[in-house]
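sanity check this record:
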Amino acid sequence: MDMDKVSALQELADLTRDLVSPAIQDWKAQGKKVVGFFCSYVPEEILYAADIFPFRVRAPGCTQTALADTYMSHLNCTFVRSCLQFALEGRYRFLDGLVFNRSCDHIRRLYDWRLSL
């Protein structure tokens, strides 16, 4: 494989490893809002039009869900439990809000996490 392609792929992987990217840091430094969302059905363009940075909620590197498992069954999908784990750990505190829509039942259940913020 071409080394330029490998380094470009590694650069992209490095950018997605952390939740708060340099772009989010710059946006927040300007006093602007960052709002999280889960589903591709949320129209990011509307958030951008309101001068809000849309953040696709995710949980990179989550290896255990002990806190989340006290609130959700282990039968729920690991993505949802990982996101709840990060929320309970306070890793999404940089968010100024969340957008929820009618999505899968597991993500709809995450709506209750707002009580922990």
Observations:
- The chain has one domain: 35-116.
- The helical segments are 3-17, 22-29, 44-49, 66-69, 78-88, 105-109.
